[in-house]
Amino acid sequence: MVDPPPSLDKARLRRQLREARREHVAALPDAVRALVFSRPPAPLFELVPKDATSGLYHANEAEAPTLGYAKWFHENGHDLALPWFADRRSAMQFKSWQNPYDEGELEIGPFGILQPKPLSEDLSPDVLLVPLVGFSAEGDRLGQGGGNYDRWLADHPNVIAIGLAWDCQRVDILPREAHDRKLAMIVTPTRIYEARA
User: CA angle 16-169-129, nearest 5°?
Assistant: First the structure.
């Protein structure tokens, strides 16, 4: 866990947390990596309405992986959606991810992340698993810095937002701004944190 002083700025904190995350993931045995985040824990799934469209992110090598969750939601009848960007300046949208077992339906987007192809169906998630660089036990989230998820969640206030993270990403205090929204839950390999009012 990184424990920053309250005065630490977000950019510096992001750098520290990204480095801690990279080191943590690099040290994990392959067998452990294959087992973590393989399916949503019961408290998370209880937050998800039965007919909900589940939005996810396509994880990079250091982020908490979402593929196991995507397969589980798919097998349990949920529509899946991934972020989609027309270009680096456009607003984040979501498009259908029909089959999490086939990455051939995805392509590299403008940020170098796999995303659905342009003709995929537009979808709006009811529940959204969000990537994060850091989090607090109270449900605060430090994102990547681009503000895409913050803006999307501000436009969709009824969406249930849930974070996935490694334990090393927890901090005691995060700088908060007016646009920051608490997550309903954060799941790590060892704990579940539910937002406190």
Answer: 125
Q: Residue 81 CA to chain centroid, in angstroms?
A: 12
Note down pLDDT in tens along the chain; length 197 residues.
Answer: 554 444 458 788 888 888 888 887 788 777 676 677 889 999 998 999 988 999 999 998 889 999 999 999 999 999 999 999 999 999 999 999 999 998 889 999 999 999 999 999 999 999 999 999 999 999 999 887 788 999 999 999 999 999 999 999 999 888 777 667 899 999 999 999 997 65
Distance CA 168, CA 189 (A): 10
Class of domain 10-194 (CATH, top level)? alpha beta
Q: What is the CA radius of gyration of the chain?
A: 16
Tokens at 38, concatenated: 């393989």
Q: How far apart are alpha carbons 94 and 80 in whole angstroms?
A: 9
Q: Which residues pair with 55 in a beta bridge?
A: 81, 128
DSSP letters, 136-182, are -TTS-EE--SS-HHHHHHHH-TTSEEEEE--GGGB-S-----TT---
**Where exactly are the structural domains of the chain?**
10-194
C-alpha to C-alpha distance for 45 and 32, rounded to whole angstroms? 22
Q: What is the pTM of this model?
A: 0.86
Tokens linked to 31: 């067998």
**Which residue's structure tokens are 């659905």?**
116
* Residue carrying structure tokens 């630490």: 8
